[in-house]
Amino acid sequence: MPFWNKELETLPRQKLEKLQFARLKRVLTRVYQKVPHYRKKFQDAGVNPSKLKSLEDIKCFPFTTKEDLFVDYPYGLLTVTPEKVIRLHTSSGTTGKPKAIFFSKKDINNSAELIARCLVMTGATKGDILQNSMTYGLFTGAFVMHYGAEKVGILVIPAGPGNTERQINLMKDFGTTILHITPSYALYVASVLYEKGIDPRKELKLKRAYLGAEPYSEETRKKIENMLGIDIYNCYGLTEMNGPGVGFECPYKEGLHIWEDNFLMEIINPETGAPLPDGEIGELVLTTLNREAMPLIRYRTRDLTRIISEPCKCGRTHRRISRILGRSDDMFIVKGVNIFPQQIEQVLMGIKGVAQNYQIVLESYDEMIVKVEIDRELFDGKIEKLIKLKEEIVEKIRSATMVKPKVELLEPGTLPVSEGKAKRVIDKRTI
Amino acid sequence: MPFWNKELETLPRQKLEKLQFARLKRVLTRVYQKVPHYRKKFQDAGVNPSKLKSLEDIKCFPFTTKEDLFVDYPYGLLTVTPEKVIRLHTSSGTTGKPKAIFFSKKDINNSAELIARCLVMTGATKGDILQNSMTYGLFTGAFVMHYGAEKVGILVIPAGPGNTERQINLMKDFGTTILHITPSYALYVASVLYEKGIDPRKELKLKRAYLGAEPYSEETRKKIENMLGIDIYNCYGLTEMNGPGVGFECPYKEGLHIWEDNFLMEIINPETGAPLPDGEIGELVLTTLNREAMPLIRYRTRDLTRIISEPCKCGRTHRRISRILGRSDDMFIVKGVNIFPQQIEQVLMGIKGVAQNYQIVLESYDEMIVKVEIDRELFDGKIEKLIKLKEEIVEKIRSATMVKPKVELLEPGTLPVSEGKAKRVIDKRTI
Ligand SMILES: [Zn+2]
Ligand SMILES: [Zn+2]
C-alpha cells in the first residue's frame, strides 16, 4: 500500500491528537488575535484560546456559519494582510455575493499536499495521466486536483468539461489513465463511447476516476465502473475547506478518510448544535487546523454524515466519514424528533422487496406517512407477504428514527418520477 | 525601474550571447541524441551539433514546422520519458489533431519565471490583484499567466471569460488592479460598464491590462485605455513556445522584449527561408534554449515582425520585436517581390487624409491595385489635393515594397465592411 506521507498518514492516534491539539490552540489564538469578528464572537461566548485544555474544549467555542463569511466582506476573516494571499476561490452564496475563500502560497501548497495523499492512496503515481474534466475557474474543483496531481508528478490534461468528442480524442491520443469528472458527465461520456462503438476496456487506458461536485448513489458508481471498466473513488470537499481532498476513499472504500491533522471534525445535532458521538448521523462541523490565510473555526458544513472510528485496513489512522447522506437543511421534525430523509432511505434500501421510489408525506406534527413502491411480483394476491413486509418497514424505520411511521405499500410507477433531484419529503403542514 | 531577475534581464550582450551559445549547443546535442526525428533531419541536412562554432551556425540547421509536430505523435519530440511530463497544452492544428506541447515540472516553473519578468517589468507587484479572464484549459493563455502571477505573489482571481455581470462584480468587490483579457472582450466589458453608468476611474481600481490571444490595432489599445483609464501592454506568445511571455512590452512600449536567454530568434524570408538582417520584416523563427521536455529547433512561427536591435531605455539588453504585423501565410507576390498586406497598411495609416478601409486587388502578377477610402471632405471639387494625395500614396507604397502600385481613391463606405477579420487582399489571379 503506497503512501504520499506515510508518517503523517499513519501517525498513532495519540500523537495525532497531540498534533491536533497543538494546532487547534495555535489557530484559535491566531484568529482571536488577528480577526476582530472572531475575537468578538469568542468574547461574547466567554471563551479564550489560552484556556484551551483539551480537544474536547472546542465544543465551547462558537460555530462559524456561512453568514459569518459575509461579515467585513471580503477580507474580514483574513489573518494575514491581503497582500499575502495569492488565490481567490468562490462558491455561490445565499446572498447575492459569493462566499470568498482566500489562499496564501502556503495554503495552496498545503491543499496540493492533501490531494497528493488522496491520489497516492488510490494507487495513482508518476506516469499516470489525469484528464481533468472539471471546470477550471473560481470553483475549487479542477484547480486543487490539478495542483495535487502536479505535485505527484502525474501528467495533467487540463481538458475542462464539455466537448465530448474532444474528451474522447484526448483519452485515445494521450492514453488518459485517470478521469476527474462529475458523475453526470461521466455517465454521458460513457454513453457516447458506447454509441461510437468504442470499447473502453480495449481502446482506452482508463484505470480509475474521481467523481465529485454532485451527489450520486452507489448504483451510479457501479454503473459507471461497469461501463468504463474502471475503479471509482468518492471524494468529499467544499470550497470553504480548500475544495476537494478533505475526505477521500482508500482502496477499501469503506468510508472517506478525513485528514485529521488538517481538519478537526465533529458531528452535531443540526437543530441543537449539541455534539453527537461517533457513529451517529448528524451535521459535519470542521475546523481548519493548518490554514494560514483564512482559518475557519467550527464551520458548519450543512452536510450530514457519521464518523467511522474503527481502524481502517489500509493502516491510515485518520478516521473516516460515511458517504454524505444529505444536507441538514433537509431535516424535518415529527413528534419532536429530528429526522433526515436519508435515514428513511437507508432503511428502505436495505429491505428486500422495496423498489426504487418512495415518498415521505407530513400532514401533522404527530405523524409521518411513508409511501413505498415495492416489487410488482409481491402483488400476487398473497396478502400475508405484504403484511409482513409492511411490518418490517414500520419496525425498522421506528428503530432508526424513534418515530413509528404510517406505511403505505404501492405498485411501482405510482409515485411521481422526478427529473433531477427527487423530492422525497412532501410537507403539507402549516406553521 | 523594477526587475524580477535583474542580472539576467540586463546581462551585457556579449555575456548574453555566450549564454545563448552554450544553451544552443546543449539543446541541439540533446535533441540529436534523444529525438530520432531530429537526428534524422540533422543527418539529412549534414549538420552535427558537435560542430557548432557560433550562434550564426544555427542557420545551417533545418527548420521545424508545425507538420513536424505530428511526426511520431504525440510523444515523438520528447527528450524525456513521458513519465517526466506533468502538463499537456494543445492548440488547434491544421490536421484533425491538435498540436501537443508537453511540459516538465522544470518547464512549468521556467515559463512562470519568464512571465514573472514580464509582470514585474510592467510595474506589477505583490499586492496587485489580477483578474484572469482568459480561458483556463488546454490553451496556454490563462495558465501560464496564472503561474507567473502566483510566483510574483499577485492575488489571482481565476475568473475565466464570460459572465460579464460577474466580472464586474469581481472587479468591484475584490478591487481588481490588473486584467488579463482578450481585446474584444475588454471592449465589451468596457461598454457594459458604460451602459451601467459605472465610472472605472472612480469605482474600480484597475491600473493595467495585458491583452492577448487576438490581433488588435494600436487604435483599439488607445480606445480601451481611454475607456477604462488604464495602461495596456502588448504581449506575444504561442503555445509551441510556452504560450504568453515570449515577448512583452516594457513601459516604453517601443516593441516587445524577447527573453533571449530562453529563445534564440531569427527573422527569415518566409518564401526562401533565407536569414534577414535586423530591422527587416520577415517571419519570426524561434529556438527554445532552456526547455527540458520538448525543445523546438528553428520553429517557424508564421508570424511576421522585425527585430529592433537598438538598446532599450529600460536597460534590458534583450532585443525587441515590433508588434506582430501579420501571418506569413498572408504574403503575396507581385513582380517577383514578396509583399505583406501589413506593409501596405502601415504606409496607409501614416498618411493624412486616408480613412479606415482599404483593399488590395491582384489581377495579374505584374500589378497591384490598392483601393483606398479617403476622408469625405477631400471630395470638394478641388482635384489638386486628390492628385497630390494619390501621388503620395503611390510613392510611399513603392518605397516600402519596391513595387509601384495602381492607386484608386474612394469615398468612405465604398468598400465592403467586413465582420470579424477584414479581407484585405482580393487575389483574382489563376495558377
Ligand atoms: Zn483506509
Ligand atoms: Zn525596454
UniProtKB/TrEMBL annotation, chains A, B:
Q: Name one GO molecular function term.
A: phenylacetate-CoA ligase activity
Superkingdom of source: Bacteria
Question: What EC number is given for this enzyme?
Answer: 6.2.1.30
Which top EC class applies here?
Answer: ligase
Pathway(s) the chain acts in: Aromatic compound metabolism; phenylacetate degradation
What InterPro entries would the database entry show?
Adenylate-forming_Reductase, AMP-bd_C_sf, AMP-binding_CS, AMP-dep_Lig_C, AMP-dep_synth/lig_dom, ANL_N_sf, PA_CoA_ligase
GO biological process annotation, one example? phenylacetate catabolic process
**Domain (AMP-dependent ligase C-terminal): residue spans on this chain:** 336-429
Any idea what job this protein has?
A: Catalyzes the activation of phenylacetic acid (PA) to phenylacetyl-CoA (PA-CoA).
Name the family the entry cites: Belongs to the phenylacetyl-CoA ligase family.
Write down the PANTHER family for this protein, in alphabetical order.
ENZYME, PUTATIVE (JCVI)-RELATED, PHENYLACETATE-COENZYME A LIGASE
**Mind telling me what this protein is named?**
Phenylacetate-coenzyme A ligase
